[in-house]
């Protein structure tokens, strides 16, 4: 028996909601897991991945077996990953979730969805990625003493997420190391007002608030220095008519939130990037409303 787990990409922060807001996007990693007497890991697209017990999917699956008191002699894992790695689109979160949900299904579902949400956030460290990866939609999530407190809201196709993906990587570790240890009180207030406004505005569909609500001074100003042309792409994305734009997760991708009625935004963005930012490729993504799915096969 094997299981196939499909996990969406995620974009954390959405500007003001640093470490607390995230959205699932319709770009997927599809991972199959089958019990085996040895470790056998392959990538269908020729991407460079760890093929031994350091593989993140394997490690997360093993953790579930350990928690459930089951021994694991090996796994056959096949990866078909569309989420680009190290681009701020939740690829490691997707692998963490695939390992946890896959192992749970192989074991006959001993863990509840809540258990898996808590475990994914504890392993991943970023509930703003792992929670929408499991639940789909727009999520607000925080991790406290090993438990995730979250809300999930559907987006109902009101906006598109035009995602500008550069041809270079930025590790989350490096992007977090760039942040200051302390921030000024008025910077904290600046963000918390906007994060609350963003959540409320997306829930109620008050899209005219999005531009102000994604404003941030806690992380992006420190990260733009690590993203060549990042600030310029955000500026251009807004000038082309986006409701708002921000660094996706820890970067380096940039996301422009665009009214879904604006059908020509993507082609305008593609033309603009070809001329001015040839290292960046815009693609159109929408909110994934389903979250991670698991399918069993014989
Ligand atoms: N909220 C995290 C960060 C997301 O911005 O560092 C990391 O994927």
Rounded mean pLDDT is: 96
Main β-sheet description: 7 strands, mixed
CA radius of gyration is 19 Å
What fraction of residues sit in β-strands?
Answer: 25-35%
Show unreliable segments: none
Question: How many DSSP E strands?
Answer: 11
Structural class: alpha+beta
Shape: globular
Termini separation comes to 5 Å
- How would you classify the quaternary structure? single chain
Number of helices: 10
Q: What is the percent of helical residues? A: 25-40%
Run of helices and strands: EEEHEHHHEEEHHHHHEEHEE
The bound ligands are: L-homoserine
Structure at a glance:
The chain has 298 residues and is α+β, with helices and mostly antiparallel strands. The chain contains ten helices and eleven strands. It is 35% helix and 27% strand.
Provide key terms for this protein.
35% helix
What would you say this structure looks like, in words?
The protein is an alpha+beta fold and about 300 residues long. The protein contains 10 helices and 11 strands. Strands 1, 2, 3, 4, 5, 6 and 11 form a 7-stranded mixed sheet that branches. A hairpin with an 8-residue loop joins strand 1 and strand 2. The relative contact order is 0.20. The mean pLDDT is about 95. The chain binds L-homoserine.
